[in-house]
Design brief:
The protein has 321 residues and is mainly alpha-helical. Helix content is 67%, strand content 4%. The chain has one domain: Up-down Bundle (Growth Hormone, Chain: A), CATH 1.20.1250.20. Strand 3 and strand 4 form a beta hairpin. The chain is globular. The N terminus is likely disordered.
Length: 321
């Protein structure tokens, strides 16, 4: 009887709140009775969270064109730096994001990185209401939106731990395939929400198109009222409930992330790694971007490899010893 009791005590509960200590997806009995439900719940929350990450990351491709159509006082070359900044930032953020699940836990990571998207979404909505603001304020929001690009690495790393090897292709395929649909979603949603004052008085005043615009379903003629700020603000409507879903519906697997600490400790780890990656990105962008916000000394083909090397080196020295 004592032996049986000790055996039962040695097996931790599989579904103890947000943190799961016993996770055996390769055990078919465990998978069918317990694991399958938990894994797919985490997957169905992960997909829209990743979708929004791609949408916020890629939104500058649409925004820059509309800024030109609305007559923002920047040259075409200056506006296209916004898409370059978002791209470089997102690519660099995938480096620290690759380590986050192990260090901070799946639930903690997906919740915080999804919630982080509120900053560039709201910030972009604010700066787009002020065409007179300097170029660097728009570039800062493009830089910040790179968090959405990094989310792909952490999201895929997280989902892979929930499924048995025979089903990892299914789980990862659904997560990546439907998550990447955020690019298409963004291309449909942004032009649509810009034609309607969905936030009323809280969403700011519209601007008037100086040039014809359009979207995948047709033309938007010059003279149309346009709420370009909705390109950022609209994502708040999905990010807030998604943040709640991530927090209350996802799990940390202690077999994968045994030393995450409490949520605040996990959040500190995530923030620290992202800060380490942002530092070389900002420096290399300064050397790459032309005046007035940079020196214009490096081509993008030199700046990107140097950024990646610097980010890896800084994280190795400062975070991993």
């Amino acid at each position: 009887m004592t032996t049986a009791s000790n055996t039962r005590a040695a097996v931790p509960a599989a579904t103890s709140g947000a943190d799961i200590a016993d996770w055996r997806p390769e055990d078919e009995t465990f998978w069918e009775s317990t694991g399958k439900k938990i894994a797919y719940r985490n997957l169905w929350i992960s997909i829209p969270a990743l979708l929004c990450g791609f949408a916020v990351w890629g939104m500058w491709g649409i925004i820059t064109v509309q800024m030109m159509n609305l007559g923002f006082p920047f040259s075409q070359a200056e506006l296209f730096t916004l898409t370059a900044i978002a791209g470089i930032s997102g690519a660099t953020m995938r480096i620290p994001a690759s380590f986050l699940i192990r260090l901070a836990g799946g639930r903690n990571t997906i919740f915080l990185t999804t919630s982080m998207l509120l900053a560039p979404a709201i910030g972009t909505g604010i700066v787009l209401q002020h065409p007179e603001w300097p170029l660097w304020s728009f570039q800062l929001m493009a830089l910040w939106s790179g968090v959405g690009g990094g989310n792909f690495a952490s999201s895929m790393s997280n989902i892979s731990t929930f499924f048995p090897k025979r089903l990892q292709g299914t789980g990862l395929g659904l997560n990546a395939g439907l998550g990447n649909f955020g690019v298409t979603t963004m291309q449909i949603v942004i032009p649509l929400v810009m034609t309607v004052g969905i936030f009323g008085a809280f969403g700011g005043e519209p601007m008037v198109l100086a040039k014809d615009s359009g979207w995948i379903f047709g033309k938007i003629p010059a003279g149309t009222q346009t709420w370009i700020q909705n390109a950022g603000l609209a994502w708040v409507l999905s990010l807030v409930p998604l943040g709640a879903l991530c927090w209350f519906g996802m799990n940390n697997l202690k077999t994968v992330s045994p030393a995450t600490g409490g949520p605040l400790t996990a959040f500190a780890k995530i923030t620290y790694l992202y800060t380490l990656a942002f530092i070389p990105t900002i420096v290399m962008l300064y050397f790459y971007l032309p005046a007035p916000t940079g020196l214009g000394l490096l081509s993008i083909w030199v700046a990107i490899p140097l950024d990646i090397i610097a980010a890896v080196t800084i994280m190795k020295l400062a975070a991993f010893g």
